[in-house]
């Protein structure tokens, strides 16, 4: 169904990871507006609600007022100035997060045309681990994977071998 191209490789790995750890009877609050992956989760039988596009750095009311048993934050935390505050507002004891890892050979992503499409954080794995730990979460499972590219050059070659994404499943103690 999903090829090994971006973002299909990421979608395939993330879906397999969710299906490994999550019952379809649980209610997911997916941080961020409805997106191609939240639609895939719904097609696969998961019960998913999305946030409405509010600035989560400032407004965590959806996290505090909605009913959910699991939070997913796929490719969201790197856009936040303060993911710590967002994690403090999570009511559920289960969370799935994926982030792009900081690469030594490439600077953080920043769109020149869309002020919201930029990465304030590009984490090292230990930084996300610590962020979760400081909010009372323990990592149950994780996977790291590469960012496929069909370009030629030194950096695309490095991307073929260097993990770009970190996907974790954590529970609150």
TrEMBL record:
GO terms for molecular function: methyltransferase activity. GO terms for biological process: methylation. Keywords: Methyltransferase, Transferase. InterPro entries: SAM-dependent_MTases_sf (IPR029063). It comes from the Bacteria. This is Methyltransferase. It comes from Flavobacterium piscinae. The lineage of its organism: Bacteria, Pseudomonadati, Bacteroidota, Flavobacteriia, Flavobacteriales.
